[in-house]
User: What shape does this take?
Amino acid sequence: MNEGHSTLRNPSVAVIGAGMTGILMAIRLREAGIDDITILEKADKVGGTWRENTYPGVACDVPAHMYTYSFKGNPEWEHRFAQGDEIQSYFEGVAAEYGVTEQVRFNEALEASHYRDGRWHLTTSKGSKLVVDFVVAATGILHHPAYPDIPGLDVFRGDMFHTARWNHDVSLAGKRVGIIGTGSTASQVISEISKSVGHLTVFQRTPQWIFSVDDKDYTERDKQRLRGNQKLMSKLSQRYAFLMRHTFSAAVTGNKLAHSIISWLTRRNLRKSVRDPELRAKLTPDYKVGCKRLVISGTFYEAIQRDNVALETTGIERIFEAGVITSDGTEHELDVLILATGFHPFNFMRPMDLTGRDGVSIDQAWAKKVQAYRSLCVPGFPNFFLMLGPNTPIGNYSVIAMSEVQSRYVLKLIDNWRRGELETVEATEEAKVRYNEYLKAGMGKTVWVGGCQSWYLDPDGDPAMWPYSWDQWVKELEEPDLDHFHRRAPAEIVPLNPAEKAA
Ligand code: NAP
Assistant: This one.
């Protein structure tokens, strides 16, 4: 792909977001000989989700040595499950080392992106205008905090914040704290803050299945063994990946044996960790293990049984000035209320003002359903890629691995464009429809349709996930099928006017 650059069209590319995927895309584009890259980042630092989520206990429940770029292992991980600040440093380090940081336009969000005359016309929050051939939205999935629609949220007099907007000015020590939610985020927060708060009330609407894996601290000797040895780090990463594929990933996509083993271990974890039958009953979900994203925690059950922690399962009626009122009329007085209520997973790059061919907005394109072809391409939006778009596998796997697979596919499509094999890169509507029928056909055997409500489900109740194996996903993304794209005769290539391109 790197051969003969001089004979290829040389695209200009805007990458939106300098999180894990944006950094990766910038590196990959440059490797492919594409230098005309603009990276827009709304914040003042790289890191994306790891920059934004700084709540106590924040960590990655995918093993650290698997949660790295394949080309850049990290011998310095302190723990098997890396903590948020370690991960943030890792991304900052990679971005600096590969010259990405210096290319990022920080504190500059992309506000509008309109496709006309074969190019994308962008307007940023600083009022800058630029015109590019390709836009890559590396804007993440779980990016827009979801605030619960509980009456009275605005009347609470204490401190209140969402986990993704943690207020570090508020000390929790000795305070009466309430937390709404019991997902992956809440389980990490609860494990950590229960050690120091005066009293913690956990408001649980639905119990979660918790799979326990012990953390491990890496010693200096462990690190020394890995330093300078990318091959060994890759091996370690692949070993974890193999394990995850044949256990968690298989279990959720229809492998009955893997599912029954994970189920058994998960149920045993609850039985062994929580001896009080009443508390155990409250913590027992009524849906299949893995239906909601499996929470990985070796500390949650211990935390919920601390003397200063109460699990409240009566529904919340409303918030009042001094705390939370549950539907049995009990007033729970609180100093601090934490909202661990998750994210809007279907917003993606929105609320960006994005219009494709013929002036169709992304809201119009997605009015009936949020769908894409191979998660990445939305018909009507030529030369636009949505990284980690709808039905990207997700699950309990490394999202970095997903971005790596997608970035290779995107680079191949850009290469088709550079060679003139595609005039524009635009999936056909038919290809998108077929692809989504194919996805739907596989959902029946997955656990996501196992009778629970989760952020995996779209408003129609369809899981926005990949229902087949990881290996199959990788294989299908190896080579783009150009029959699934509009094949127009290559147009005359109009060189960009440098004045038009300038900010
Ligand atoms: P989440 O899984 O969507 O959980 C949100 C929680 O808030 C649920 O317990 C939900 O209850 C509750 N909730 C929402 N609205 C409510 C309301 N109005 N009243 C009462 N309860 C309400 O969100 P999350 O915990 O932030 O996790 C989201 C995803 O982020 C995870 O699934 C995972 O993919 C990712 N994550 C990963 C890691 C990691 O270590 N890799 C860590 C954190 C997060 P219901 O269950 O009843 O809806």
Notes: The radius of gyration is 24 Å. The pocket of NAP is lined by residues 59-62, 142, 148, 150, 180-186, 205-206, 293, 316, 340-342, 453, 455 (CB under 6 Å). The CA atoms of residues 212 and 297 lie 5 Å apart.
